[in-house]
Design goal:
The chain is α/β, with parallel strands linked by helices. The chain contains eight helices and eight strands; from the N terminus they run βαβαβαβαββαβαβαα. The protein has an eight-stranded parallel β-sheet. Strand 7, helix 6 and strand 8 form a beta-alpha-beta unit. Helix 2 runs parallel beside helix 3. The longest helix has 16 residues. The N and C termini lie close together (12 Å). Belongs to the ribulose-phosphate 3-epimerase family. Its cofactor is Zn(2+); Co(2+); Mn(2+); a divalent metal cation. Its EC number is 5.1.3.1. Keywords: Carbohydrate metabolism, Isomerase, Metal-binding.
């Protein structure tokens, strides 16, 4: 497992110049653009919709757009994001009445499908759907707001999910979101993650390239 996918969350970007911010962070070495979509219903905050995704594609962004839906119900919005140019769409099992059907819906629209586990969501929710997933996203904070501190028990959860993925032998990306910084990314990588969502740690830094390079270096060092 050599993946080190850096996915800056635009939640922490300067929205007055979003296209430029995304261009800059991709030029600085980021792999994906991470979208935190919140509906003030499933989570206590309201952020962005498909129009922002579409606008970035029109602006010329070609990097994968990694859409994390913190919305309920989830099925209604999936086709809109797919049409707007999303590459991957992840959702929370609590926000779907039929988890397997939602995964099929995402794939039927040509996107990769991910399932998101909150800190309190048991890993067993993956037992019957892992075969169909392209990505598992573990929340290392409670969803709803940026800038929160990493929850340490996520490391054990990462190890458990990594073992589940490896046992099946199918390539599934294991992503982490919440409180990821240069100084803890090594630990997170050592526990089995291969994609890292970072918002404020990147966008609040004066030099995006420096932070991303430091993150990659710490991941490589942790993996030996």
């Amino acid at each position: 497992m050599s993946n080190c996918i850096i996915a800056p969350s635009i939640l922490s970007a300067d929205f007055a110049r979003l296209g430029e911010e995304v261009d800059n962070v991709i030029a600085a070495g980021a792999d994906w653009v991470h979208f935190d979509v919140m509906d003030n219903h499933y989570v206590p905050n309201l952020t962005i919709g498909p129009m922002v995704c579409q606008a970035l594609r029109k602006h010329g962004v070609t990097a994968p757009i990694d859409v994390h839906l913190m919305v309920e119900p989830v099925d209604r919005i999936v086709p809109d994001f797919a049409e707007a140019g999303a590459s991957l769409i992840s959702f929370h099992p609590e926000a779907s009445k039929h988890v397997h059907r939602t995964i099929q819906l995402i794939k039927s629209h040509g996107c990769k499908a991910g399932l998101v586990l909150n800190p309190g969501t048991p890993v067993e929710v993956l037992d019957w759907v892992l075969e169909d997933l392209d990505l598992v996203l573990l929340m290392s904070v409670n969803p709803g707001f940026g800038g929160q501190a990493f929850i340490p028990s996520t490391l054990d959860k990462l190890r458990a999910v990594r073992a589940m993925i490896d046992k099946r032998g199918k390539p599934v990306i294991l992503e982490v979101d919440g409180g990821v910084k240069a100084d803890n990314i090594g630990q997170i990588a050592a526990a089995g993650a291969d994609a890292f969502v970072a918002g404020s740690a990147i966008f609040n830094a004066p030099d995006y390239a420096q932070v991303i390079a430091q993150m990659r270096g710490n991941v490589a060092a942790a993996r030996g």
